Give the backbone structure.
Amino acid sequence: EVLNPVRTRNSHPLFQVMLAFQNTPEATFDAPDIEANLEIQSVGSAKFDLTFEISEGNGVDGTPDGLQGLLEFSTDLYKRETVQQLVERFILLLDDAAKYPDQSIGTLEILTLAEKNTVLEKWNGGFQIVPEMTLPQLFEKQAHINPNSIAVVFEDEKLTYEELNKKANKIARLLIAKGVGPDQLVALAMPRSLNMVVSLLAVLKAGAGYLPLDPDYPSDRILFMLHDAKPSCVLTNSDVEIECDEELKILVDDVKVIGEIEKYSEDNIDEMERMKRLSPSHIAYVIYTSGSTGRPKGVMIPHQNVVRLLGATDHWFQFDENDVWTMFHSYAFDFSVWEIWGPLLYGGRLVVVPHTVSRSPKEFLQLLVKEKVTVLNQTPSAFYQLIQVDRENEEIGQKLSLRYVVFGGEALELSRLEDWYSRH
């Protein structure tokens, strides 16, 4: 009555799976010249979705002789083949538990050898060698290979890999001079811009991890993240209103700060310049959860995780310097990590989508065509809106250069893509 579950006649209202372990003494039947024993039998009608009946077996001398079992199932819900596989896995689990009784339940084996080979070999796509390097090292490699290639675009502004690298090096040295280094966090509170990408890279070059604060977020959420993460400083713009200790703020568009930044070398940061050596295990960024299930929690991700993500998926996509990506999402949303570092670690071009354009599917479609975007990353709900605009403006959609659409963030309804595939 308290829970008040939805009533349905399709299943038992209290529980759907029953396990009955019969360990009472076996009934006996004594008669001259007659041997009798008890067997578990199904009555041919399932009361529950699944019913496991297990009984202890005994030998003729009364000693334990294993377990016997029967699994009764609802044919409206399960096929015999499915139940057979379930039984096989259950036996594997019991056998493993009997052999190694001290191990935790989560480590017990439930896959057959064939299934394990499928998961580890067939579905895994083979072993991928991923370099043990940091994000700045991999970016600097691309800046050396493709110095004159466009690295990032925002509206009518753009930076080459060489320009982005040099600007980030200068700001990184400013941060190092202020005592910033590995095992520390630097908050970023900036609108979408070239400066945002430069500052983000600068934080990593200094050795710290970045804490993205979206200026459009509610002020109480930003205050909570600042109080919880305790960053060493906050890189921001003069037109961004953020409540924090003024001594923590570094206004990257302030004339005095710009003058100070220009004093520093534009060469790559040497390990000896940092507070300590930067390793792949150091924190690259902290992004907070939405807090939908309670208080937001900061998730700390090291450099090696981002590098491995891109390295382990390389055989799927084979991204290269010819790809053009969009940063559609807020940099405080974890999807942005894939969007930002995908192009910058492969020598491609990153197009930072203006906030107003990200809220207008038609303008976004036009941007995709204008910039000849090849890699689009979307949540399904955002892509459904793009599908509709593409259908209504076929003359624009026909000019798309997309190679991949990568989905994330929520469940995808494949049936809703039929309309898109019919045109592309």
Summary: The chain has a mean pLDDT of 90.
